[in-house]
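As practice, study what follows.
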Amino acid sequence: MFDIRPLGPEARSLLRDLLIEVVAGGASVSFMHPLSAADSAAFWDAALAAAAEGRRVVLGAWDGEVLAGTVTLLLDCPPNQPHRGEIAKLMVRESCRGRGIAAALMRAAEALARQRGRTLLVLDTASDGGAAGLYEGLGYVRAGEIPDYALKPHGGLSGTILYWKRLS
């Protein structure tokens, strides 16, 4: 099984390597392949600094000593949206996929959002090769699709699907 817990600066190098791996594998998580170690580290430095300030939470799923996956709960919403959070950067190491890690990370992020008083979560995923099935299976409602939204990591355009979920 795996253990899910918030991550801090001590996980920086593991997060850096995970991001590089999933981008190389074609995951559409805002970066192009090849992703340099410096650019990946800079992203995580900023993300972990925001987490230290309470503007987000970076959760990690551990399989023993291996960081199997991660998801980020964004909490830094505008003043008129204190009830909302956003799911970002759901990533699972390729060798760890198919074991329910992504779903467990999502459930943990939802529980944390509820604890933080959030009643609505939003997210987006790539139309091509994204995690639409996972999100729909977890009760997220498809709001719509935007065509040609972003470049895929290895080139070519992909749309994005927007989702939302009310938390009870």
